[in-house]
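Transposase, IS630 family (Saccharothrix espanaensis), 352 aa
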Amino acid sequence: MEEGRKLQRITRTSKDPVRLRRAIVVLMSGQGQAVPDITSLMQVSADYVRDVIHAFNERGFAALDPKWRGGRSRTIGEAIRERIRLIARASPADWGITAFSTWSLAKLRDHLLDRGTVAAISRETLRRILRAGGVSWQSTTTWKASTDPDFVIRMQRILDLYDHPPEGGRVICVDEFGPLNLMPRKGKAWRPAGSPRRLRATYNRHHGVMHMLAALDLTTGKIHYRIRRRKRHAEFLDLLKTLRARWPDQRLHLVMDNFSPHRHPDVREWAAENDTELVFLPTYSSWLNWIEAEFAALRYFALNGTDHLTHAEQNAAIASFIRWRNAQAQPKTRFATDSPIRTWTHYPANAA
């Protein structure tokens, strides 16, 4: 009786299909079921049923546990596997192949067979070898090197402002976001499998575009912004005057890129007269501007997956997101503390 109750518990709770199947066979046999009846119900062979029953009689419940074998030994050694990964990471042109510029698994397999690197290999085995070695299928990225001869000096000045905001001063990152088109934007959402959300593919610009001028206050982590039809120096200067009015007794340190309205004589003159320092990024170094990360979040959470038909509707969505974000905001600290840029003494030739 005790064995029967234990077998019933196994049939109700076991997550191992082999252990579950064997327990059911033994339980049915203990209930007086004949071997043909068990084979018909379980869709297994008579020999399998008899082997399970005999093993249980000899070894008890230990006979229910599967004994997995290690499987067939590897036919492709580690040295060959590493060579396969090396070939995969190289361009086909490096091997004298000019018909295509990148490998597919099928093309890489054919190349390995033609060169005699392996005698036989399937695409699935090839995929597993690459994956085990940390080689994955990735999109190519671009790198635009800075031509600024004072790159390191200017970068270190900005990092110092981020790390040690001056007493009695306020560090603010400013930039433009846009253009804000009225268009369907691809995005991601949780949906039933195989049923993606559909957006229209065609659109027009009858309503033109708008631009967002924004400022990230590192002291509070909040974003202050405005949306305008143009992004000339006049609109930019209006934003700066708003920031000046918000913190009238503090020196402003404005981190910005080299966009021409930022360097306009009127902007420079106003900054000199209003206790404001314009801290320009090195050329082609927008990634040093902390507000860029905030723009990425804005694009992902407020715009991607939307299809606004009017600027009022789209502007309201942006405003709603920024209100939510500012309510959660924390002071901005620890900018890229583990990044290699912290140890640069010169600008690298590439980003590898």
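The radius of gyration is 33 Å. The chain has three domains: 2-64, 78-132, 151-186+206-343. ok done for today
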